[in-house]
Amino acid sequence: MQSFSTFRLIRQLLADTSEVAERDDVGKLLKIYRDAGNEGRIPAPVNGINPLHRSLHTAITLCEMVSPDRNMVIATLLYELCATGSITADDAGKLWDEDVARLLNGLLKVTSLYGKHSAVKTDNFRHLLMAFAEDIRVIIIMIVDRLCLMRLINHHPDEKFVADTAFEASYLYAPLAHRLGLYKIKGDLEDLSLKYTSRDTYTKIARELNETKVARDAYIADFIAPVREKLEKTGLRYEIKGRTKSIFSIWNKLRKQQVEMSGIYDLFAIRIILDVPLEDEKAECWKVFSIVTDMYTPNPKRLKDWLSIPKSNGYESLHTTVMGPGNKWVEVQIRTRRMDLVAEKGLAAHWRYKGIKSEGDLDTWMNNVRDILETADGPMELMKNFKMDLYDKEVFVFTPRGDLHRLPLGATVLDFAFAIHSKIGCSCVGAKVNGRNRKLTYKLHSGDTAEIITAPGQTPKQDWLNFVVTSKARNKIRQTINERANRSAEFGRELLQRRCKNRKIELEEGALMRTIKKLGFRTVTDFYKAIADESTDVNDVLATYEMIESGDRKAEERRSAEEFELRDPAERLADSSDDILVIGDNIKGLNYRLSKCCNPIFGDDVFGFVSAEGVVKIHRNDCPNAAHIRDRYPYRVIRTRWSGKAGSQFAATIRIVGNDDIGIVTNITSIINKEKEVSLRNISIESHDGIFSGFLVLGVNDTSALSEIIKKIKTVKGIKDVQRSN
Predict the structure, then answer these.
(1) What residues in the chain have per-residue pLDDT under 70?
(2) Spatial distance between the Cα atoms of 414 and 454, rounded to a whole number of angstroms
């Protein structure tokens, strides 16, 4: 029985390939199979299925549902023998041509991925499949082979094998078939998948379709009759046929619409196929559309025009849904014979390669495939040079458990470690790639299996940034290095402060900044980190600081005391002989203080507030507390203005934000020292992540002097913001 079945399959394949096969093809194949049998290399059954019978079924289905392509059929028949070592792809290439060898190598590479079972359930596996195949025909062979396998496992005893096969068919191969326009194959894969995963549902729908077939056929005959009569009068050559929706699509519609079978009447589509020249296709299709919609009322929401703009996979057709007899909706599809061939057999039927380059994504690539034409040499001839470089900018790498990760081309072991988890990346010291030890810098390839090796004492290094390519790895390395540097800098700061305390030295911020610059450090963080790393001696730092601080003190002594007179505004008392404020009705001799909450200076708009102690406190009109005071104690508010003569300098605080650069502080102090009417009383600066912020207490005569100095400080390179602070 087995021999008879094999003979029948071979005879059918010979008939299907009679127009494309060459004279010695059969002889070469028979010799290879005989030699394999003599050497005991005939593939053994897998899951109870004879691999050679499966190859014959695949080759026949390929001819019937796609195209009778000679090289694809030969590669399909030789693949199982190549897998067992009976013949190599190179030897097959010598017997036929390099194209056959390329197809065999593609099939061998792609099927080698199936040891990674868990990865099949991820989107990345489909991408890896395309990257490995390199030739679109390899993917087509695999899709057809999967359809044949699905047909062979009906009532197979191994339920898990059937379930896994059905899952791969629906998740992986049906979407690929859809993208390639292989709609018949896609529908069959989905139907069989539903059958094997939910047999009761499949059987119920199939039974109901069979039971309603007579009624549907009668209805469709009534629908078609007047359309046929009109078409006959046009003189067009046409064919009308009906197509029941696939069981899977019916189940999907029932599930989405939550209705019974009786509630769906577009289960059956009318297809009108025209025999017209290529240049008249669109015009004649719209002409038939007009005839149908004149007879039956169309639903404008259901018009689908894939004539003007074909689908991304080349599908062309004109669809409309009209109200038929008995107020039932019927879908009508209008297309030409060429369009129908594309719809049935996909892009493989009519393909033209236009030099499309990789876009990094299957859907984007498919969207570029628009042009379809007829070719006398056979469609697959045009596909030989169709290189599958969809993912030539990416690599796909497995973990030992079979999880699949997608990385950019050039990704290293270290990039892969960070892709798995940041902690693994930070402690990575290498990897075992396909069983061999590799360094951090080793560049991975699609299909590699990498097991990351870590060590507790490993931490990210600066030079890692020279060879990683993923942004995740770069960002995490930089973040970790910066965090470590900040922790080290904080330790260095504490070390310096402890040493100063022991030697009873009180650090002055300005002198310290000049010390850091003199020692050659670019940032404060680098300075403190050097102390923590002991690359800079604390004693040398303090010696330099004392030298600079001593020079500052001598310079200070040379300047006149009057130049630095800056009385504390909080302690300022009125002097009847030198009042600079006019309080109330020109009252003089009152005790007053400048409020600390807003620190008013000469020129600010101010008001007086009589405190409980009897002292008049002077506030700026825009003081944060002004609204509260005026609202609650209006009777204690006194009109106040400046007398028009400035007295001693006033204290004004400004806040500065800028880049953490030692030179900035020096430039700021230099600007202040050059101003005759401005003096620096105090400076306090902190730095974090390359940015410093601080407060300067200045002695100024009035608001105009303060505005002028703020304007000049803003011109310093690296300064981001300068504002007056309360």
Answers:
(1) 1-4, 113-134, 243-244, 257-268, 312-313, 345-392, 551-580, 584-590, 612-613, 644-648, 662
(2) 11
- What would the pLDDT profile of 691-724 be if each residue is shown by its tens digit? 888 888 888 888 888 888 888 888 888 888 898 8
Residue 562 exposed, middle or buried by CB count within 10 Å (0-12, 13-18, 19+): exposed
Q: Tell me, what amino acid is at 72?
A: M
516-532: buried (b, 16+ CB within 10 Å) or exposed (e) per residue? bbeeebebbbbbbbbbb
CA distance 222 to 325: 8
Spatial contact of 592 and 616, defined as CB atoms under 8 Å apart: yes
CA torsion through residues 278, 341, 100, 22, sign: negative
State the Cα–Cα distance between residues 410 and 378, nearest whole angstrom.
38
385 burial (CB, 10 Å; 0-12 / 13-18 / 19+) is: exposed
CA 36 to mean position of chain CA atoms: 48
Nearest-angstrom CA–CA distance, 39 and 42: 8
Which ranges in 431-502 belong to alpha helices (H)? Answer: 471-502
User: Please, are residues 130 and 164 in contact by the beta-carbon 8 Å criterion?
Assistant: no
327-358 in b/e form (b: 16+ CB < 10 A) is eeebbbbbbbebbbbbbebbbbbbbbeeebeb
What residues are paired with 453 via a beta bridge?
430
Give the whole-angstrom CA distance, residue 107 versus residue 59.
14
pTM as predicted: 0.50
